[in-house]
Amino acid sequence: MTLLRAIGCFLLFAVCTAPFSDAQKKPLQPGEMILSGKLTHVMGVGGESTGWALELNSDLTIEGQTFRSIEISGPPKKLAQLADQEVKARGVIKHRHGVERKDWLVLEVSSIWLKKPTGTA
């Protein structure tokens, strides 16, 4: 009985972690990118904001503009779980339009996960 329980726990763990490893290893599609940084909650004037930004670890240049952070859009519950942590986010850059901000760029997240600390075994 203990052996069956151990096998069941292992299978459950394998099924739960499989989507995370697949998303990280799948080849990038055209226009898709992986960015890393600290996920933060943000607010915008007039409500023209996704509510989330990724404070990038290095400068990012897109369409001639250099960014130190970029707004992201994704599953609200997942983003809330990862708030104020170092993450990697995979997605596509899209243009958003509004009255106050006119045109701005947003990373539409297809997957997001915790960044593993460097130097750990």
Short description:
This protein has 121 residues and is α+β, with helices and mostly antiparallel strands. The protein is built from 2 helices and 5 strands, in the order αβββαββ. Helix content is 25%, strand content 45%.
What does this structure look like?
The two termini are 33 Å apart. This protein has one domain (30-114): Nucleic acid-binding proteins (OB fold (Dihydrolipoamide Acetyltransferase, E2P), Beta Barrel). The protein contains 2 helices and 5 strands. Strands 1-2-3-5-4 form a 5-stranded mixed beta barrel. The protein is α+β, with helices and mostly antiparallel strands and 121 residues long.
Name of the CATH homologous superfamily = Nucleic acid-binding proteins
The helix tally amounts to 2
- Strand content range: 35-45%
Spell the H/E element sequence: HEEEHEE
Mean pLDDT, nearest integer? 81
For this structure, the CATH topology is OB fold (Dihydrolipoamide Acetyltransferase, E2P)
- Placed side by side, the strands forming the largest sheet appear as 1-2-3-5-4
Number of DSSP-assigned strands = 5
CATH structural class: Mainly Beta
CATH architecture assignment: Beta Barrel
Fraction in helix: 10-25%
Would you tell me the structural class of the helices and strands? alpha+beta
Describe the structure using short key phrases.
121 residues, alpha+beta, OB fold (Dihydrolipoamide Acetyltransferase, E2P), globular, 5 strands
